[in-house]
Specification:
single chain, alpha+beta, globular, two-stranded antiparallel sheet
């Protein structure tokens, strides 16, 4: 049975990928339930553009197979037929992820965290931690200048807590890229 917006109550990933969503915007599939995502605000958009530009420039200079994507669909390693998450950005180095409707092998996942999306963002982060290829997850805050960085250790385990950076530089080891924190927030109105 459908609700007032004609959104099915439960669907598979295959059904979701061919579904004609009611209206514009991004939709995620969470445990078989399609959920609309709130539109990003201007601060969010500026931060997303800044990090994408920095990473794309780095990948272009470095060469190789890695590709930066904004708002990619990610198919997690758990309940793959019922989930399709949309982080703010991701980097994949797998040719199998190019030209398909959802990536399965990201090495870096980036989420932009605002106070209104805290719970859903961390739910998606925990799901992405189950994907074997994910080496790092970068969480960028929109309410003040701060990032949280999660990085697998050499044994493939995730840390018990996040590394928080509030000034200076930080390194994305998965890309061999060190960035000034302020570059993420340039012209965003934060800080």
């Amino acid at each position: 049975m459908s609700n007032a917006l004609d959104v099915p109550e439960l669907m598979t990933l295959e059904e979701f990928l061919t579904w004609d969503a009611p209206g514009p915007g991004l939709w995620q599939l969470i445990d078989g339930v399609p959920l609309a995502m709130a539109p990003a605000g201007s601060t969010h958009g500026v931060i997303q553009s800044n990090i994408a530009t920095l990473i794309i420039n780095h990948l272009d200079q470095r060469g190789g197979p890695c590709v930066m994507m904004t708002n990619p669909g990610i198919i997690p390693a758990f309940r793959t037929n019922r989930n399709f998450f949309i982080p703010d950005a991701a980097v994949t180095c797998s040719e199998a992820d190019i030209g398909v409707p959802g990536i399965r092998h990201p090495v870096l996942v980036i989420e932009i965290l605002s106070p209104s999306n805290h719970a859903e963002t961390w739910r998606n982060i925990r799901a992405c931690m189950l994907i074997p290829s994910v080496r790092e997850i970068l969480v960028i805050r929109t309410d003040f200048v701060s990032i949280d960085l999660l990085r697998r250790d050499a044994d493939g385990a995730w840390p018990d807590d996040v590394t928080t950076v509030t000034d200076g530089t930080f390194t994305l080891a998965s890309l061999d890229l060190t960035l000034p924190l302020g570059a993420l927030y340039r012209r965003s109105g934060v800080g």
